[in-house]
Amino acid sequence: MTEILEQVAVEEQASSAQRVVEHPAWPRLKEAVETIRPWQEKDGSIDFTAEGAPEQAAAAEAVDRVIAALRELAPLLPHDAAYHQALAADLRAWAEGGFAVPDFLDSLLAFQPAAHRRDGLQHLVVFPMYTQNGNPDRNLEAVVLRMVWPDWLAELERTRYDNPLFCGITFEDFTAGYDTNSAVLFPETIAVREAPARFDWGGIFCDREAARFRRVTESAVDILGLELPEDVREMISDQDRCQQAFVLWDMVHDRTHSHGDLPFDPFMIKQRQPFWMYGLEELRCDLTAFREAVKLAGEGHPQGRDVQYAVLFDRMFRFPVSGERVRNYDGLGGQLLFAYLHRHEVVRWTDNKLHIDWDRAPQVTNDLCGEIEQLYRDGIDRPKLVHWLAGYELVATYLSPHPGSRWAKGPDALDLSLPPRKLVDDVLPDEFPLSMFYEALRKKLRNVIASTKGITAADAEQTAA
Q: How confident is the model at residue 464, as a pLDDT?
């Protein structure tokens, strides 16, 4: 048995050295998937009576090409053998079933990347799926990725931040659904006949996050005239260093959803709440990662220092001015962080320049984390609606609500005979509009943020060069 395990390890090590994307079968697989994608409806099915639809035989032939290419590539990835076998079966079943709404539950259950967390290990993933912050339709997608699991991260996960489902990953190549703003690979986005009892993994592309962070931060720093310490400048210019910061940030953030007082994962539980509650939850997880980063930096972990910079700059510069203003909970969290630091004179916007008190920033940022955690602790003893109102009050202490908001006028302005979920309908699309500072920054960063669509580490390095 030991000899068999050793042989598998040798085979996996050898396969990791040969890049899947350099094999001639990869472009054939990618081309076949891209052929299928435009034929699909929103739910992933193919309507052969629709205008411009192919013959069913042509769709079946394209699926055959995907399976044939997969068969050639599978030997490079022996750790995914069970998944690739199930994937081929699901693809055949989809074709033989007339290309109805796809069901890839069997291959989803067979794909277990968290069971093989080894730095640099490749995976070839093909699923009908939507890409969060990318394509909302369940199109067939193909992506080749590598695991990011350095020894220092594995040790922190084992000893301090247990998160057995978390997968830090980077892009090798992808189909059109990932030529977007999506930086995640989540099992709940995949088309299946029924949701599994639990999901066993979740992947976040730290290379895209780092590349996007670098480009937006560099532009914001230049626009705002912010003077950076040399160590921060060195970090922003280093893609690998930023990737390490983001994979640590993501790992701690992800686990925080299920830790602490009154935790909830807004995406897994699907609770209907006002979007500021989602914003507070996401910010709580980020600020928990920040607080842990302060501790790690004090213990000599260089990644801890970099996580602090990443959280501050991504939250303050990119989040508030990215995406639409309709229930933008991540943008709201960024606005709240900036306003809190400004209120406590850690950041100052004076003479058209931004100034940061680097010495006080860690403590004051941790203070905001403490206020949110106190909200959660008190919430254990509150009814849901009272808790929502308390969350609103916390945000409104630092951000100005929209003057037309019913929620801003307090409970007397709400129809309290309705159940709480119905009162969510009284929430404005943009309860807390951007400040004048952010309105100006948004205009100046608009093109830079748009340029990060589909960005990869290679793109970031080319820009830096």
A: 60
Please report, for the chain, the start and end positions of each structural domain, with discontinuous segments joined by +: 2-200, 242-458
CB-based burial label for 73 (10 Å; 0-12, 13-18, 19+): buried
Q: How confident is the model over 88-147, as pLDDT tens digits?
A: 999 999 999 999 999 999 999 999 999 999 999 999 999 999 999 999 999 999 999 999
339-347 contacts: CB < 8 A, separation 24 or more? 339/398, 339/399, 339/435, 340/364, 340/367, 340/368, 340/398, 341/316, 341/365, 341/368, 343/398, 347/316
How many Å apart are CA 291 and CA 366, to the nearest integer? Answer: 6
Nearest to 278 by CA among 320, 329, 339: 329
3-state secondary structure of 172: strand
Amino acid at site 157 = E
The b-or-e profile of 316-355 (16+ CB within 10 A means b, else e) is bbbbbbbeebebbbbbbbbbbbbbbbbebebbebeeeebb
The whole-angstrom separation of Cα 121 and Cα 5 is: 17
Hey, how many other C-beta atoms are within 10 angstroms of the C-beta on 290? 28
β-pair partners for 150? none
Confidence class of residue 15 from pLDDT cuts 50, 70 and 90? very low
Residue 248 to residue 448: CA distance in whole angstroms? 26
How far is the first Cα of the chain from the last one, in angstroms, to the nearest whole number?
Answer: 50
Q: Give the count of alpha carbons within 13 A of 292, CB side only.
A: 20
Place of tokens 């992933």: 44
Residue 298 Cα to chain centre, angstroms: 27
pLDDT digits (tens, 9 = 90+) for 380-426: 999 999 999 999 999 999 999 999 999 999 999 999 999 999 999 99
pLDDT at 389: 97
Q: Phi/psi of residue 452, each to 5°?
A: -85, 0
Which pLDDT value is given to residue 262?
A: 74
Q: What is the pLDDT of residue 261?
A: 86
CA atoms of 360 and 354, how far apart (whole Å): 15
